[in-house]
Amino acid sequence: MIVAIDGPAGSGKGTVTKVIAGRMGLINLDTGATYRCVALEALRRGVTLEEKEKIVELVDDLNIEFKHENDFIRVFLNGKDVTSEIRSIEVTKIVSQISSIVPVRLKMVDLQRKMAEGKDVIMEGRDIGTYVFPNADIKIYLDADVEERAKRRYKENMEKGINTSYEEVIENIKIRDENDKNKEIGALRVAKDAIIVDSTKMTIEEMADKVEEIINKKWER
Ligand code: DC
């Protein structure tokens, strides 16, 4: 059973996915985290965005694992916990471009499909319902106005002690939206059979209730 949750940054995907995984006993898979690991390793090695071949090469040295602790996922890169580091502003600034490199995408999609094998999962990303799992049982596209998405991300950053201005956050989101929508493979778009949920005016609780209702309608247990 695969539930695909796609949508732009700040749409509430991550939060809703976590809540639903806990409520419904699904495994939570955050595909953005896999691209963030590649971006982090590129930064650590001093590889720039122009050095595409080096970026593709370094992917083969990465072992990415998710460890689930209750409803919290920890992300491990080559055995080290990088859960916080992959959310840094430096990683966030380059991750969309990293994820546009076709050979990087192909390798990450392969990994994401393997991670879901034989499990009941709720998987969040940009291209889950369109590319990674075009036959997913349930597809939801979560959206919200860009100002609201930036507000949420800014608040989240403040809570985590990541120091950025609101202007910087909204600018980054707009650039990522554009880049994510124009990818050669796995571009951000609504799958034909996806249900669109506009979360602009919804609380987390309301979003989760809506998503749970959609899943319950389709999932016969
Ligand atoms: O969801 P996120 O913000 O952690 O994702 C980070 C970046 O990774 C995002 O800008 C686009 C990219 N991404 C992608 O291309 N495909 C996915 N399935 C998930 C994320």
Helix/strand/pairing category: alpha/beta
**Bound compounds, please?**
2'-deoxycytidine-5'-monophosphate
**CATH superfamily assignment?**
P-loop containing nucleotide triphosphate hydrolases
Show unreliable segments.
none
Largest sheet: 5 strands, parallel
Fraction in beta strands: 15-25%
> How do the SSEs run, as a string of H and E?
EHEHHEEEHHEHEHHEH
What is the CATH C-level name? Alpha Beta
Number of strands: 8
CATH-derived topology = Rossmann fold
Q: From the coordinates shown, what is the CATH architecture?
A: 3-Layer(aba) Sandwich
Report the C-alpha radius of gyration, rounded: 16 Å
Describe this structure in words.
By secondary structure, this protein is α/β, with parallel strands linked by helices. The chain has one domain (2-212): Rossmann fold (3-Layer(aba) Sandwich), CATH 3.40.50.300. Helix content is 51%, strand content 17%. The chain is built from nine helices and eight strands. The chain has helices at residues 13-24, 31-45, 52-59, 89-99, 102-116, 128-132, 146-160, 166-181, 204-218; strands at residues 2-6, 27-30, 64-69, 72-77, 80-81, 121-125, 138-143, 195-198. The strands form two sheets. A five-stranded parallel beta sheet has the order 2-6-1-7-8, sandwiched between helices. The longest helix is centred in the last third of the chain and has 16 residues, at 166-181. The chain is globular and about 50 Å long. The mean pLDDT is 95. Bound molecules: 2'-deoxycytidine-5'-monophosphate.
List keywords for this structure.
Rossmann fold, alpha/beta, globular, 221 residues, binds 2'-deoxycytidine-5'-monophosphate, five-stranded parallel sheet
